[in-house]
């Protein structure tokens, strides 16, 4: 793993750079530009404390990480409001975070830069509930030594639970309506919507389906 030196100065993109990097986003997407965050090697530091008479390692955020996260979180909250982003209260709603990296050097690894940045977005409580909902995707890696940055597009995933799309879920649930389990708040359907793989559902067909009798109406 490459260790990169971090600049202690956090510089948020100015208006000119923002205009060049961001165009009008589609509905339900959030476009952001981040300066290069501290890498995982510079996110946390450790010190020894005494606990029960024994030295124990305790982690803490570095000064660079705190400074970056405070500045970036303020910017994210402002952009979320400006762009009309509405955060879902559904904890199983996942989001793609598509990233275009513009590194200042060729020896940098994009996998080292997600954690500090994602945590800063989570701390805003304006985009998603928890970064466990996040699906990071690298779209491109380029190099710009004069303006290193990460351009982000955040938007809901195409799939819903185990279903590839909303239409596939709609088709599956339309069949569930005639099943005698549906009126009892079927646990299989609920779990499938939350993304749980179940042996009772094979190739999009529920093996527990039992047509409801007219007497059950």
Layout of strands and helices, then pairs:
Layout: H1 15-21, E1 30-34, H2 40-43, E2 44-51, E3 54-61, H3 63-82, E4 95-103, H4 114-124, E5 134-143, E6 149-156, H5 166-176, H6 187-193, E7 201-202, E8 205-206
Parallel strand pairs: 4-5
Antiparallel strand pairs: 1-6, 2-3, 4-6, 7-8
Helix pairs in contact: 3-4
The biggest beta sheet is recorded as: 4 strands, mixed
Q: List segments where confidence is low: pLDDT < 50 over at least 5 consecutive residues.
A: 1-8, 17-26
**Rg calculated over all Cα atoms:** 23 Å
Provide the residue-averaged pLDDT: 86
CATH architecture of the largest domain: 2-Layer Sandwich
What portion of the residues fall into strands of 2 or more residues? 15-25%
Tally of helical segments: 6
- The fourth-level CATH homologous superfamily of the largest domain is Holliday junction resolvase RusA
Order of helices and strands: HEHEEHEHEEHHEE
Give the terminus-to-terminus CA distance: 63 Å
**CATH class descriptor name of the largest domain:** Alpha Beta
Strand order of the largest sheet: 1-6-4-5
Number of strands: 8
User: Would you tell me which CATH topology of the largest domain applies?
Assistant: 60s Ribosomal Protein L30, Chain: A
Overall morphology: elongated
The share of residues in helices is 25-40%
Characterization of this structure:
The protein is an alpha+beta fold. The chain has two domains: 15-156, Holliday junction resolvase RusA (60s Ribosomal Protein L30, Chain: A); 166-216, no CATH class. 28% of the residues lie in helices and 24% in strands. It has helices at residues 15-21, 40-43, 63-82, 114-124, 166-176, 187-193, and strands at residues 30-34, 44-51, 54-61, 95-103, 134-143, 149-156, 201-202, 205-206. A four-stranded mixed beta sheet has the order 1-6-4-5, with helices on one face. A two-stranded antiparallel ribbon has the order 2-3. A two-stranded antiparallel ribbon has the order 7-8. A hairpin with a 2-residue loop joins strand 2 (44-51) and strand 3 (54-61). Helix 3 packs across helix 4. The longest helix is centred in the middle third of the chain and has 20 residues, at 63-82. It is elongated and about 70 Å long. Mean pLDDT is 86; it is low at 1-8 and 17-26.
């Amino acid at each position: 793993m490459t260790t990169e030196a971090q600049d202690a100065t956090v510089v948020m993109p100015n208006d000119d750079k923002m205009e060049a990097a961001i165009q009008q986003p589609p509905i339900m997407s959030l476009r952001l530009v981040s300066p290069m965050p501290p890498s995982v090697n510079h996110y946390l530091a450790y010190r020894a404390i005494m606990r029960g008479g024994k030295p124990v390692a305790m982690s803490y955020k570095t000064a660079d990480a705190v400074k970056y996260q405070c500045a970036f979180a303020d910017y994210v909250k402002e952009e979320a409001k400006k762009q009309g982003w509405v955060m879902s209260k559904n904890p199983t709603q996942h989001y793609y975070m598509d990233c275009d990296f513009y590194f200042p050097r060729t020896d940098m690894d994009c996998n080292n830069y997600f954690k500090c940045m994602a945590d800063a977005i989570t701390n805003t409580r304006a985009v998603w509930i928890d970064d466990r909902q996040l699906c990071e995707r690298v779209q491109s890696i380029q190099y710009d030594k004069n303006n290193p940055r990460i351009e982000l597009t955040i938007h809901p995933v195409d799939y819903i639970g185990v279903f590839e799309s909303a239409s596939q879920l709609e088709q599956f649930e339309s069949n569930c309506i005639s099943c005698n389990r549906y009126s009892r708040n079927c646990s299989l359907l609920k779990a499938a919507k939350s993304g749980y793989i179940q042996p009772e559902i094979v190739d999009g067909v529920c093996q527990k389906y039992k047509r409801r009798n007219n007497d059950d109406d």
